[in-house]
Amino acid sequence: PSKRPTDDDIPFNLVRLADPESGSLHPLASLKTILRSIDRKTHHVELVSDRPDPIVRIVNKKEAREKYKELRKRAQAAARAQVRKEIQVTWGVAPGDLAHKLEKVRHELVGGKKVDLIFASKRGQVVPTKQEMDVRLNGVLETLADVGKEYLPRAVRNAMTVSYLKPL
User: Fold this and answer.
1) Which residues form the signal peptide (predicted)?
2) How many separate domains does the chain show?
3) CA 148, CA 141: separation in Å to the nearest integer?
4) Residue 76: pLDDT above 80?
């Protein structure tokens, strides 16, 4: 809902009404007259500006409420999209465990979240060659291609590779 003064909270007696169709301003009129001319169950008068003359507009309460809900829904969706999940996997992960981790990645991407997929080596584990790492990661990304794609270049440090994924 708007933080602007409405109806009887407007501190002016004479106001100019903004025409909803043309956007033009009507001449100065009594606020009380304008309030009497509307159905206050379905509409309210809202102060838009107070300089140079106080300007008001008539707002449909139902439409304003729906617009507010839609804006809130969009803001929440945008906030969710900014959330990034981090999922770590070792290079020597068993196929069953990898399938489980990839299902988690898929779930997050379908939910609209970005995912940082990290492949790293365990201490004492044989470190794969750069070529083996690329083949493994490309295979994983192919399985996720229907729900996400890389949006940043991969970060590669020693035996660790980070793939930054975003939903399609």
Assistant:
1) none
2) 2
3) 8
4) yes
The residues with which 116 forms a beta bridge, in sequence order, are 86, 164
The contacts of residue 145 (CB under 8 Å, 6+ apart) are none
E strand or H helix at 106: helix 95-110
Taking the whole predicted model, whether its pTM rises above 0.70 is answered as: no
Mean pLDDT of 46-65: 92
Q: Computed from CA positions of residues 105, 109, 111, 113, in that sequence, does the dihedral angle turn out positive or negative?
A: positive
- Give the mean model confidence (pLDDT) for residues 140-166: 93
Tokens 């492949």 appear where? Answer: 119
Q: What b/e sequence results for 19-33 when a residue is b if at least 16 CB atoms lie within 10 Å of its CB, and e otherwise?
A: eeeeeeeeeeeebee
The per-residue pLDDT for 138 is: 93
pLDDT at 78: 78
Distance CA 73, CA 112 (A): 14
Portion of the chain with pLDDT greater than 70, in percent: 98
- Same domain? For 89 and 60 the reply is no
* CATH number of the domain to which 139 belongs: 3.30.110.10
